[in-house]
Design goal:
The protein is mainly α. It has one domain (2-218). The chain is built from eight helices and no strands. It has helices spanning 2-19, 29-55, 69-91, 97-117, 122-127, 137-145, 149-180, 187-218. Helix 3 runs antiparallel to helix 4.
């Protein structure tokens, strides 16, 4: 019920954002949706950072079995965000297969631990730090729409930096902790970690290559 309420709240926010924001009138719904996504991801990232600082070092070495109200609340918000995003993607007939796959796999990842371990574990909070990459998608779509490709290129550089220096260390951290705790974890959680160890780096490689194409095209242009 908590997640349903959060999903409905996001739907109300999106409706206001897409129809009641005069400063974005020149952009179509696709770009508005990208901007809305970025705002959501920024909020999720900040919430995750605050939790990391709030709980300090203690849960870092025991991330599968550490939890709190804030961690559960953030994880519920992320599940609600994914559900709302998937609904909007279906309505808008989004044809990005990799995004569909990412969202469905992420939904599975964030739903399974609470069901099989009876908690929203701290490691899910750490995973949400990776949402920093999506923070720049909205402004990037605005630059592309306005044909400011040099500025778009800098957004791509930032995204590549996040992939290399934020997301990759997170995947390594999760894999190592999963291996260290493999005797304690439910098999389905271990399986999910194993699949994620392949899927997430592959998706990051795919997105990094797309970014690099734009960087190569516009980096040396005035």
């Amino acid at each position: 019920m908590n997640i349903i309420i959060k999903t409905l709240f996001l739907s109300i926010l999106w409706n206001y954002f897409s129809n009641g924001n005069k400063s974005l009138e020149k952009y179509d719904n696709k770009i508005k949706f990208s901007i809305f996504r970025s705002i959501c991801c920024l909020t999720i990232f900040i919430y995750a950072v605050l939790n990391v600082f709030k709980y300090g070092k203690k849960p870092v070495l025991n991330p599968f079995f550490s939890t709190s109200f804030d961690i559960k609340d953030l994880n519920d918000w992320f599940v609600a965000y994914l559900l709302h995003d998937l609904i909007c993607m279906a309505i808008n007939k989004t044809d990005r297969i990799e995004l569909w796959f990412h969202h469905i796999f992420s939904l599975f990842t964030f739903v399974i631990p609470p069901l099989y371990m009876n908690n929203s574990c701290y490691i899910l909070n750490v995973l949400l730090l990776s949402e920093l990459m999506s923070v720049f998608s909205g402004i990037d779509s605005m630059f592309i729409n306005d044909n400011e490709m040099r500025k778009s290129m800098f957004c791509k550089k930032i995204r590549k930096f996040v992939i290399r220096y934020v997301r990759t260390p997170i995947w390594i951290y999760v894999i190592i902790l999963a291996i260290l705790n493999y005797k304690k974890l439910p098999k389905i959680v271990l399986l999910n970690c194993g699949v994620a160890a392949i899927v997430m780096p592959f998706l990051d490689y795919f997105w990094a290559k797309k970014c690099q194409k734009v960087i190569d095209k516009y980096e040396n242009k005035i």
